[in-house]
Every structure is written in structure tokens, then in C-alpha cells.
Amino acid sequence: MSPIQIALLLLAVAGVWAVIELALTLRKTRTVVDSLDKTVSDLNNTIAEAQPVVAKLDGAVDELTPALAQVEPLLKSSKTAVDALTSNLVEVEAVVRDISEVTGSMAEASNAVSSVTDSAAGAVQKLFNKVKAPAVEAERNLSAAAEAEQPTERVLIGETGDDAAAGDDDAQKPAAKAARYYTYAPAETSEESCDE
């Protein structure tokens, strides 16, 4: 075989290989074009469905345009109202400050009056205690002297002579039976024990 024939043979093999590669590339391109065609058709459907929504949004925007024109004056009037409210709050703060000063002054005056009345009441109480103390002491001395003069009482236990004579008639005459009572000598008071 001559070199020209070998070269032609190699060229034929390379041509066949190029044709096969071209066919494979065309097949892949066809599948890509088919998927791209499906994507475009889906996109067209989506756009067709979105057109009524966009039309409604356009109508809503057209309706909102007059309302938006009215918002600006409302914002201006609300700013004016907020400014007025701020100035009112400043005035209220000043009034509250004045009230707190007045109540503080009143509290100080009340404390002063209270201290004056407390000191006056204390002086009057001391005066009454000085006048009352000798009278109380004299009364205590009189009651101590009266107790010292009283005789000591005795405790009586037992039956009287009439009860002993009655004997078995006790069941018939319960009211006639003498009442028993106990008396005790008066206890010493703390003043007497202090004196001793």
C-alpha cells in the first residue's frame, strides 16, 4: 500500500468519526432545543396567567393614586397634632412640677404644725402628771391604811350545828343546809412588800 492510500484511508476514518460526532452533537442539541421549547411554552403560559393579575394591579394602583394624594395632607395635619400634643405635655409637666412644689411646701408646714402641737401636748401632759401624782399617792396611802385595819378572815369548813342535828333529813331539806363558803386573807400588795 502506498502512502497516499494510507493517507486517504486515515482521512476516510477521520471523516466517518467527524460525521458520528456531528450526529451525536445534533442529537444532544435537539434534546436541549426540545427542553428549551417546553420551558418557553411554560413561560408563555405563566405570562398568560399573570396578565389578568397585572391588569388588576394596574387597576388597584389607579384607584390608590387619589388616596395617595390625600395621604400627604393627612401626614401634615398629624405632624401638627403631634406638635400640639408635645407642647401640651410640656405644659402638663410644668403644672405637675408646680403641684409637687406646693405639696412639698404643704408637707413641711404640716410637719411644723405637728411638731408644735406635739410639744404643746407634751407640756400639758407633764403639767397634768405633776398635778395628778400627789392625788394618786394620797389615794394609795389611804387604801393601804384601810387594808391594814381590816381583820384577817377565816376559812370555815364543815357543817353548822343545825345541819348536824338534822341528820337524815338532808335529802328532804336541801335548801335548809347551810351554804359553805371560803374566804381568804387579803394578799400583801406590792407597795407593802417594797416598804419592808
> What percent strand?
under 5%
Contiguous uncertain segments of 5+ residues = 163-168, 190-196
H/E element order: HHH
Q: Largest sheet at a glance?
A: none
Q: How far is the first residue's CA from the last residue's CA?
A: 166 Å
Report the radius of gyration as a whole number of Å.
63 Å
Mean pLDDT: 76
Number of helices: 3
Q: How many strand units?
A: 0
Q: What global shape is seen?
A: elongated
Query: Which structural class is indicated by helix and strand composition?
Result: mainly alpha
Helix % is: over 70%
Summarize the SSE layout with pairings.
Elements: H1 3-149, H2 161-166, H3 190-195
Structure description:
This protein is mostly helical. The protein is built from three helices and no strands. The chain is elongated, with a radius of gyration of 63 Å. It starts with a helix and ends with a helix.
Structure in a nutshell:
This protein is mainly alpha-helical and 196 residues long. It has helices at residues 3-149, 161-166, 190-195.
